[in-house]
Design goal:
The protein has 471 residues and is mainly α. The protein is built from 25 helices and 2 strands. A two-stranded antiparallel sheet has the order 1-2. Strand 1 and strand 2 form a beta hairpin.
């Protein structure tokens, strides 16, 4: 058994290096221009829909969609999407942007949020306009149905390409890995792990060092917790997300509000720095680097705009009006990339230190909250756990939908077990391999999604004009 696990870990290392190399080749600025450049085109061609129609989008949340074809309401779809997108990127990613680009980088994050909202609007409209069904007749959404119905049957290979990439891109690779890393850093000491007889005993059986055994056990614990939710299906995921998302965002808001009120005199200076440094050389380069990390290779993890996963969830909505669903969908980036990222930036700039060596993220944020609030780093760790877990709940549904499209419901339902096993695996692998895998599969998902969204954007503009002309 020991030799089996040793060979398995060695194989993972080889696969991990291949994934890192492939990610470096396919990702970076090409992905940046595809997501941000394509999103900017959608923003301009739609007449700045994410600005002009924001009040209408907020109003849509108060409308009911009960009794129409679908599995969940529009509000539940939005909560589930936000549950997936709010994660470590909103905390660690913002800290990285501040460290690399200074306060001015936050201004460009706001700009990218507006761009992301326009992309999400188009995805939401198309998710209902080209809603599909599985082999049992249950409504389904996603880029695969948008491509097959919107672009035509001859584009079906591209739809399958997205679904295959989605099987792996929705496995919560980073969340499992970084949640394990954050828990180890916060609640354990390296020497206590190294000297643990319990871990050594298991390690002698499975052929792993003590820290590897710790990661293995923690990964198993994550999988058990996630299983309780995701094996109940989309309705249980939506119900949990509807409670969890407002709670965790509200708690995070209260923590930042405390920091603001106790440092009220310094708040104007923070926003002054954000705007004044938004266009200087340091902020220009750093903001570009921050958007390339959070935007092209990281913002795909922050708001999923252009990746296609949101259209999977919104396609399950009971809403039968494409424009109404698009309005709800575009609120997602305003919450995660707008509100939550701004809260993180303000807290760090008030109480943290961004003049550190190297590229650091979560460590900078936790020190800032620890400086401002008694046990603030522990509270932030609790928030991080909630963010990471909520992402896993929603992403399991995305992967299951892709599997169902490819293999049918009879086989697709077993994807949930594959997803749970992946949480254990990615809790063990090195961070470089986890980052590379996320980047690679997200890039592969973005290519077919953006091809479809950009090609079908005229239909979205037409539906938008007709909807608001009637109103």
């Amino acid at each position: 058994m020991s030799r089996f696990f040793s060979n398995f870990v060695y194989m993972l290392e080889k696969i991990g290096q291949f994934i890192i190399d492939a990610a470096e080749l396919l990702c970076g600025y090409p992905l940046f221009f595809l997501l941000i450049g394509g999103g900017l085109y959608l923003f301009l061609s739609s007449g700045a829909v994410s600005l002009r129609r924001l009040p209408a989008a907020v109003g849509e949340l108060r409308k009911k969609t009960d009794g129409q074809e679908g599995q969940i309401s529009s509000a539940q779809a939005l909560a589930s999407v936000v549950a997936a997108t709010i994660g470590l990127g909103n905390i660690a990613g913002v800290a990285i942007a501040l460290v690399m680009g200074g306060p001015g980088a936050i201004f460009w994050m706001w700009v990218s949020a507006l761009v992301g909202m326009a992309t999400k609007y188009h995805e939401g409209v198309l998710a209902i306009m080209y809603k599909g069904k599985d082999d049992t007749g249950k409504p389904q959404g996603g880029p695969m149905h948008i491509i097959e119905q919107g672009l035509g049957p001859k584009w079906k290979p591209l739809a399958k390409f997205f679904a295959i990439a989605g099987l792996f891109g929705t496995m919560c690779i980073m969340n499992a890995n970084q949640l394990t890393e954050a828990f180890m850093t916060t609640f354990t000491r390296p020497e206590s792990i190294a000297s643990s007889d319990f871990l050594s005993g298991i390690g002698s059986v499975v052929g792993l060092a003590n820290d590897g055994v710790y990661r293995l056990l923690f990964g198993c614990a994550i999988a058990v917790i996630v299983a309780v939710v995701i094996l109940g299906g989309i309705k249980r995921i939506a119900n949990v997300a509807s409670v969890m998302v407002p709670f965790m965002v509200g708690l995070y808001f209260l923590m930042v509000l405390y920091i603001i009120l106790t440092n009220l005199g310094d708040v104007p200076a923070v926003f002054q720095r954000i705007f004044s440094e938004a266009f200087n050389l340091r902020a220009g380069f750093g903001a570009l680097a921050g958007i390339a990390i959070i935007g092209a290779r990281r913002a795909a993890l922050v708001n999923d705009a252009g990746i296609g996963t949101a259209s999977i969830m919104h396609g399950a909505s009971r809403n039968n009006n494409p424009v109404r669903e698009g309005l709800v969908a575009m609120l997602g980036p305003s919450i995660d990339s707008g509100l939550v990222c701004t809260l993180t930036a303000v807290a760090i700039l008030l109480c943290g230190n961004i003049d550190v060596e190297g590229v650091k993220g979560l460590e900078v944020a936790m020190k800032a909250f620890g400086n401002a609030i008694p046990y603030g780093d522990i509270l932030l760790m609790f928030i991080v756990v909630c963010f990471a877990m909520s992402s896993m709940f929603s992403y399991s549904f995305y992967g299951t939908t892709c599997a169902t499209y490819l293999f049918g419901t009879r086989i697709g339902k077993y994807y949930a077990w594959f997803f749970l096993a992946s949480l254990v695996v990615f809790a063990i692998v090195p961070i470089e391999a986890a980052v590379g895998a996320c980047d690679l599969f997200y890039a592969l998902m973005a290519i077919p999604t953006m091809i479809a969204v950009l090609s079908l954007s005229p239909k979205v503009r037409k539906a938008t004009r007709e909807y608001f002309a009637k109103k």
